[in-house]
Design brief:
Layout: E1 23-24, E2 31-32, E3 36-40, E4 43-47, H1 50-57, E5 73-75, E6 78-80, H2 83-88
Antiparallel strand pairs: 1-2, 3-4, 5-6
């Protein structure tokens, strides 16, 4: 792996060394030692925060275009943020549960 020599892993003077490799968020490009991976549909995604993960991964309501970060509603292969938007698109028999 390029840059994997002992000299490349040496800490920068004046910086606190980390015990893990830095990874880069695929949304914002931030290099961060505490990134996390999301494994979904056979792909691996790397993020530095939940907001970047939501930005990349959350489905979008096909009626109002908001990102769905809650339960959402799936009807006939289409995603909606709730029953109201699904009904506005002509889907029937869908109710919100509270």
């Amino acid at each position: 792996m390029p840059g994997d020599s002992p000299s490349a892993r040496s800490p920068v003077p004046g910086r606190r060394p980390t015990l893990w490799r830095m990874a880069t968020c695929e949304v914002c490009g931030n290099s961060y030692g505490m990134t996390f991976e999301v494994h979904a549909q056979g792909a691996v995604h790397v993020f530095d925060c939940f907001s970047c993960a939501i930005h990349r991964m959350a489905p979008i309501c096909e009626h109002c275009r908001v990102q769905i970060i809650g339960q959402g509603v799936e009807a006939d292969g289409h995603w909606y943020c709730g029953a109201h938007c699904a009904r506005a698109e002509g889907k029937t028999g869908i109710v919100d549960r509270v």
